[in-house]
């Protein structure tokens, strides 16, 4: 049985991914979603593409993955944005939510099972309940400013994910902002008291009108939908501290169970040595790139083709290389189709091709996986160039196409749907091959007309029928 290993940020070790007992092959996966105060940039999408690769590979290996991704639609940044635009928070975030789903589709990200929103009444109620429990257990306190803070000194495990040394920190400080650095470890806000800049944004709570902190939002949405213990939790490395550290503290103090079994974090997408970030102004959104004539598939390739923990610098040359690689894959795929023709029996493909999936078992080693893919492409192209001796047979080509279909399930880099042949056309093509084999020429012509009526052109070559978009 295939075994998938991943590097767990918590232990810093490669670990075998094992579902919990009695869970069969089920794994829960929580992925921190976008803060919808702007269009997500492709740095954010590096994280989401990595998570998509993880999910798809786990599914290829027979796991059932339950994935939840939250939408952060109330926090310091969204409130600031709505205030600056002079519109209601919901009106401000709505177009960014819609754009996020459009972009996700263009990048071929599998949809999550649920996309909880922080402003949802049921989620807010859960956040308030969790804060109440933390207060009762002495892990939280109400400060003079009317806000509720998590008392980090009350949780000895604080710092275990990011390896923060609390000994040398003055933990009596407090921080209201959602983001702060390791040098300023401090009690963080769970519930922020309403201030005039919040305008109409606010909910009633036992501690007065206010709004949740970013960290409690994720804790509540994650455990609310996936249970007290989650198998895998992902994000970019910038999420490790303070966000994920705070999530652990909150959940483990409320529930007393380990919050997450495996933590996985991707490295940042960089631009000329700096993290691509909205605040740095060095970012591209997907729509910027689509406007320049790049496709979602090309951007996906550029983001997926470097190991998730490796440095990836964003350049237009990188996108150009993605375009070239995809062109080679498309031409090869077409050639395999020509060679396979109407052959339906598949010769089991070369066992070396299983190396593609074995490489991904090794902490998603995409470089080795792509090496197998391109080596297979080179070798089979060479054999399609040969004369009779050693030439790739139709059954071998069909075997490779079947393997490629599994690769597509994981990489999702197949040509645009408009170019891939729909099943009803495939069926007609097979029926036409049978008619031709039986020398039923009239029937063959009729089927060709039916195929044409569906918008596809069929050409007879010495290697069989060739199908293209009409
Ligand atoms: P945010 O919308 O800022 O909460 O970020 C959403 C996700 O994108 C988080 O998982 C971040 O860690 C991730 N992220 C942000 N910037 C980058 C970047 N330049 N490269 C990779 N991931 C990023
Ligand atoms: Zn989160």
Structural overview:
- By secondary structure, the chain is α/β, with parallel strands linked by helices.
- It has helices at residues 42-60, 76-85, 89-106, 121-136, 214-226, 240-255, 286-291, 296-304, 316-340, 355-361, 366-385, 394-411, 423-437, 441-453, and strands at 5-8, 13-16, 26-31, 64-69, 140-142, 148-150, 174-175, 187-193, 210-212, 230-236, 260-266, 269-271, 274-275, 312-313, 456-461, 464-469.
- Among the domains are: 5-271, HUPs (Rossmann fold, 3-Layer(aba) Sandwich), CATH 3.40.50.620; 423-469.
- It is built from 14 helices and 16 strands.
- The strands form five sheets. Strands 5, 6, 7, 8 and 9 form a five-stranded mixed sheet that branches.
- Strand 1 (5-8) and strand 2 form a beta hairpin.
- The radius of gyration is 26 Å and the shape is elongated.
- The two termini are 44 Å apart.
- The mean pLDDT is 93.
- Bound molecules: adenosine monophosphate (AMP) and zinc ion.
- The site of zinc ion has 3 residues, from loops.
- Adenosine monophosphate (AMP) is lined by residues 32, 34-35, 43-44, 46-47, 235-236, 238-239, 266, 268-269, 275-277.
Concise description?
This protein is an alpha/beta fold and 470 residues long.
């Amino acid at each position: 049985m295939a075994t998938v290993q991943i590097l767990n940020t918590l232990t810093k070790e490669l670990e075998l991914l094992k579902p919990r007992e009695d869970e069969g092959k089920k794994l829960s996966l929580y992925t921190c979603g976008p803060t919808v105060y702007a269009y997500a940039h492709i740095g954010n999408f590096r994280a989401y593409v990595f998570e998509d690769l993880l999910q798809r590979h786990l599914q290829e290996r027979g796991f059932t993955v339950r994935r939840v991704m939250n939408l952060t639609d109330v926090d310091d940044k969204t409130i600031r944005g709505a205030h600056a635009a002079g519109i209601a928070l919901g009106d401000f975030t709505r177009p960014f939510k819609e754009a996020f789903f459009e972009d996700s589709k263009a990048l071929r990200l599998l949809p999550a099972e649920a996309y909880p929103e922080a402003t949802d009444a049921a989620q807010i109620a859960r956040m308030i309940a969790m804060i109440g429990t933390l207060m009762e257990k002495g892990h939280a306190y109400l400060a003079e400013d009317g806000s509720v803070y998590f008392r980090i000194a009350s949780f000895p495990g604080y710092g275990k994910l990011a390896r923060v040394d609390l000994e040398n920190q003055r933990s009596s400080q407090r921080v209201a902002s959602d983001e702060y650095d390791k040098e300023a470890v401090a009690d963080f806000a769970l519930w922020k008291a309403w201030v005039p800049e919040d305008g109409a944004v606010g909910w009633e709570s036992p501690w007065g009108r206010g709004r949740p902190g970013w960290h409690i939002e994720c804790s509540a949405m994650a455990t609310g939908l996936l249970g007290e213990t989650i198998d895998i939790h992902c994000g970019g490395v910038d999420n490790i501290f303070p966000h994920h550290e705070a999530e652990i503290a909150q959940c483990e103090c409320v529930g007393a169970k380990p919050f997450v079994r495996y933590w996985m974090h991707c490295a940042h997408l960089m631009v000329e040595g700096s993290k691509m970030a909205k605040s740095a102004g060095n970012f591209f959104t997907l729509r910027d790139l689509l406007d320049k004539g790049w496709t979602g598939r090309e951007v996906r390739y550029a983001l997926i083709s470097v190991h998730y923990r490796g440095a990836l610098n964003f350049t237009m040359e990188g996108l150009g290389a993605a375009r070239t690689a995809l062109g080679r894959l498309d031409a090869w795929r077409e050639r395999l189709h020509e060679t396979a023709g109407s052959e339906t029996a598949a010769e089991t493909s070369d066992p070396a091709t299983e190396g593609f999936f074995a490489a991904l078992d090794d902490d998603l080693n995409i470089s080795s996986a792509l090496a197998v893919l391109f080596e297979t492409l080179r070798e089979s192209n060479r054999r399609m160039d040969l004369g009779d001796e050693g030439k790739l047979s139709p059954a071998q080509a069909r075997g490779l196409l079947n393997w490629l279909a599994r690769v597509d399930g994981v990489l999702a880099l197949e040509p645009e749907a408009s170019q891939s042949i729909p099943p009803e056309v495939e069926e007609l093509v097979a029926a036409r091959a049978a008619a031709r084999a039986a020398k039923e020429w009239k029937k063959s012509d009729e089927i060709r007309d039916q195929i044409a009526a569906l918008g596809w052109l069929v050409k007879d070559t010495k290697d069989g029928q060739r199908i293209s978009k009409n």
